[in-house]
Amino acid sequence: MKHLLSVQELSRAGTLRILDTALELNQVTDGGTKILPTLRGRTVVNLFYEDSTRTRISFERAAKRLSADVVTFSAKGSSVSKGESLKDTALTLNAMGADMIVVRHPSPGAAHRLAHAGWLESSVLNAGDGKHEHPTQALGDAFTLRAHLRPGAKDFAGLTIGIVGDVLHSRVARSNIFLLGILGAKVIVIGPPTLLPVGIENWPCEVSYSLDAYLPELDAIMMLRVQQERMNGTFFPSELEYSRTFGLNRKRARELPEHAIVMHPGPMNRGVEITAEVADSAQSVITEQVVNGLVVRMASMYLLIGGNVSVA
């Protein structure tokens, strides 16, 4: 596979190949080797049409840890703000000899268009396209789940994962639902009907409108940010009402099994989908998700442009 655009293009074997490679890279870097020569002489371009802090910095650090030359391109202050099309930007980057384009774009399908329109010779890695997908976030989350709940396992059979909140606007939720399904986990999506996408009953998950009913069954719970910036109407009465019904507080966290972990892709709205007390608790692996996202992005880059192993 030349590109990584969607988790739905991955097989279970391909997913495990990325996770196993990430584990090996993590062990090497933890052992003191912070910079690896793997991508020396390669150029990675971060092409970001949306504001980002965590994802942009994570991709920059991943590429630099593999010794790649990194160019970060923001739409603001570039020729894009003057009306340059995605095609012309791609042709320019191709002429400059980029080996990989990491793209974040507000339009679903933009990464796929960039990869398959014939404008580029380089690999394309989707860093989030609209409400569609965010594959490396889901892979990082799977790495975290595996480390805590299934060390070394080849699948997630027997695990039950709850994904709670604004699924409608969340590319992270979509990628996680499908990737966890590939790995054999049971996924329960929980939220108000107004924040669940049409057709979700055809996705590999169960759907519930009650958080409290499922807490004792969950091995992990992933709280999603309420994405007010993507909302052009009223999806729930108030933030207070949302928090009372679907927020994870200390009382609800106590209903989880003792081994269960609490996740959040960030950035968090503390006091809305999760309280500060739970976000900072021993159950929380939220900061660990950030670290694991880095090693998974290193693994994805290595397999796509540095190694001889396919991620298909």
Structure description:
With 312 residues, this protein is an alpha/beta fold. It folds into two domains: 7-134 and 290-306, 3-Layer(aba) Sandwich (Rossmann fold); 137-285, 3-Layer(aba) Sandwich (Rossmann fold). The protein is 36% helix and 14% strand. The chain contains ten helices and nine strands. It has helices at 12-30, 54-65, 86-95, 110-116, 135-149, 171-182, 239-246, 250-253, 276-279, 286-306; strands spanning 43-48, 69-74, 100-105, 123-129, 160-164, 186-190, 206-208, 220-223, 261-263. The strands form two sheets. A five-stranded parallel beta sheet has the order 7-6-5-8-9, covered by helices on one side. It has a four-stranded parallel beta sheet with strand order 2-1-3-4, with helices on both faces. Helix 5 (135-149) crosses helix 6. It is globular, with a radius of gyration of 19 Å. 46% of the residues are buried.
**What is the rounded Rg?**
19 Å
Strand order of the largest sheet: 7-6-5-8-9
Beta-strand content estimate:
5-15%
Q: CATH superfamily membership of the largest domain, which one?
A: Aspartate/ornithine carbamoyltransferase
Rounded mean pLDDT score: 92
- Coarse structural class: alpha/beta
Number of domain modules:
2
Low-confidence stretches: none
Report the end-to-end length measured between terminal Cα atoms.
Answer: 5 Å
Helix content: 25-40%
Q: Assign an overall shape.
A: globular
Largest sheet: 5 strands, parallel
Oligomer: single chain
| Helix and strand run | HEHEHEHEHEHEEEHHEHH
CATH topology of the largest domain: Rossmann fold
Task: State the CATH class of the largest domain.
Answer: Alpha Beta
Q: What is the architecture of the largest domain at the second tier of CATH?
A: 3-Layer(aba) Sandwich
